[in-house]
Structure formats: C-alpha cells, structure tokens
Amino acid sequence: MATCRGVDVSAYQPVQDWGTHKRNGVAFAWAKATEGQHSRDPRFATHITGIIASGLIPGSYHFAWPNQDVGTEAANYISAVRQYAAAHDYVHWLDLERYSDGRNYAGRSSAQILAWVKQWITVVEDAFPGQRVGVYTSADDIAKGHVPAGGPIWYPAYPGSAVDTYAEAEGRAQPKPSGRAPLIWQFTSTPASGPRMDLNICYLSAAQLRAWAAGDEEDDMALSPDDIARVADAVVKKLAAGGVLESSDVSTIWSADVLPAARPPYNNGDYFKDDGKTPGNQTWGAGYMQLTQVEGIRETLTRVKAIQEMLGTLNLAQLEAALVAKLEGLTITITKPET
Q1: Hey, is 265 helix, strand or coil?
Q2: What 3-state DSSP class applies to 19?
Q3: Terminal CA-CA length for the chain
Q4: 3 state SS of 255
Q5: Positive or negative, the Cα torsion across 214, 218, 221, 224?
Q6: Tens of pLDDT along 55-110?
Q7: Quick check: helix, strand or coil at residue 61?
Q8: Helix, coil or strand: residue 143
Q9: Does residue 142 have a pLDDT over 70?
Q10: Which of 145, 152, 288, 310 shows the smallest number of beta carbons within 10 Å?
C-alpha cells in the first residue's frame, strides 16, 4: 500500500525548519489552530505560514469541547484559519479526544457527542466548500459511536519503541479500530530521530493525498500496479485449480474503500485538454490508468462468475434430449455447385 509521511505541531513545538522537513521526505503537516469556544494556539500563524510556504500539504485542527456550543466552536476555528485555507488545497480536522478528567465530555451522552461532531463538520464544510474535513480520534471514541460513518479518520495509537520511525510504521499493517480504516495513523510523539513531535503516515502516496486534498476523488485509495497484479494472479490461480468465484471475490474488488469508480465530468478543463477527452493532467491520468485496469478486472470477475453460475445450473441430460429432439426428422440438402 502506498504511503506518505507527515507531522503535526502545536504550541508545544518551536518554530520549525519546514524546508528541511520536506527534504527529509515529509509530505504533509497539520497545525493546531483552536480549542473550545475562544482559545487559539499562539504558534498557529507561524506554523501554518511556514507549512504553506514550504509547499507541504497543509492542514489544521480544532480541539473539541462537545459540551459547549458547537456553532461558537466552529466559528472560532473558521475565523482562525480562513485567511490560510481560502487560497490553498487545505485539510481540516476536528480533534475529538477526552481529557483525562473528562471535563470536555462532561454531561454528554454518546449520541449527543456524535450529533455535535456531525454539526461541527457540516458548518466547517459549508465555510470551505470543496475542502476535506475529517476527525482525529481514539479507538475508544470510535467504539462508543462518537464518529460519523464514512468520513476520513486520523487515528492515534502508539506501539512504543517498536514503532518510533517512519520505516517501522510503514512496515506495520494498517490499524483498523472497530473495523474502521484510518486515512492517517499518528504512531508516535517521541520519535527515535529527534525532539518530541507527533509523526504520522498517510495511506495514500503524496500525489494521491495532494489530489485528495484538492477535492479530486478519482484516485482516492487507488490500487497500485502491484496490487492489481496480485489480484489478477489470485484470480487466475483460483480458476486454474478448478475453483469457483464466490460473491466475496467480486465484492472485494468492488469495495468502496479499495477504489471508488468516480470520474471527472466530460469537458472539465481541470482534467482534459481542449478536445474534452484527452487527459491533460498527468497526476490524474496516471490514476485513471489504474482505475481502468481495476475496472477491467472487476468486469472480468463479474462475467466469469456469471458464466460459472450458468454452467452450474446446466442439466446435460436435458440439453442432450433437447438436441436429439431438434435433430429428429431433420433433412439436410447439399447442392453441388455448377461447374
């Protein structure tokens, strides 16, 4: 699975050399902007200005108090980030985590927290049309139903010294809290490589994450050529051994979290050249080639499965009787061509 690397910062981190981060392979960076109804991170402007200037994929987050007014909290965040987010491909996050003493969740049920989160997301999405809004949250919050279904998740889980470098995180399986596949895994706040800082990996390539942040859907979680080859090899091996495709074989390939079959509209100049059909965006074009390969596999699997189902219901004795009945009494006339 393709991945890319990122960091997140707040007032706890000093001014960063974002150019060095980028040269070291970091692709994205998120900065804390606000908390609650009125609090603002004192280093947000410095952090986010440097992130944007360096060319990293930028984003920011708001620390939630679900027992306070959701409209006031959303307005606090929107006001703080608008000047930075408006002119860029930008990602917004709601930091949904309970303080150890529970003061920011006090008096709220799981259903009320979920409703609050949905409302915050809606208000921020309305303020920044076309930009992505997700939730940073724990396994406990996910298990308790505090997080809406379907949205992007930024997930913190720290295995400890066994995983405190990017390479070690990339070598681990993607975590799946309560069956949810996070877009981003925050795997340490105490990296082996240096000062205290949250490190993250995203389960998209840098190009895919940038396209996703820009609102493009077509190559979101796209299969790599290696993934495609493994799927094809597995299908061929199963059929060669006399196996029959099950519904799960097809549904797995059709799974929305593998590759959504979305296309840009015809004649959209962001994707096509002036003729309206020749790809003019190289990043999108590469993703589209993967999409068409996967769709070919999907169609093949569906057709093979349909043929196998038809053959499975075929009664050879009935077929033979029907053919004999048709042939009885049949007269075949052969006319010799004139010379």
Answers
A1: coil
A2: helix
A3: 71
A4: coil
A5: negative
A6: 999 999 999 999 999 999 999 999 999 999 987 799 999 999 999 999 999 999 99
A7: strand
A8: helix
A9: yes
A10: 310
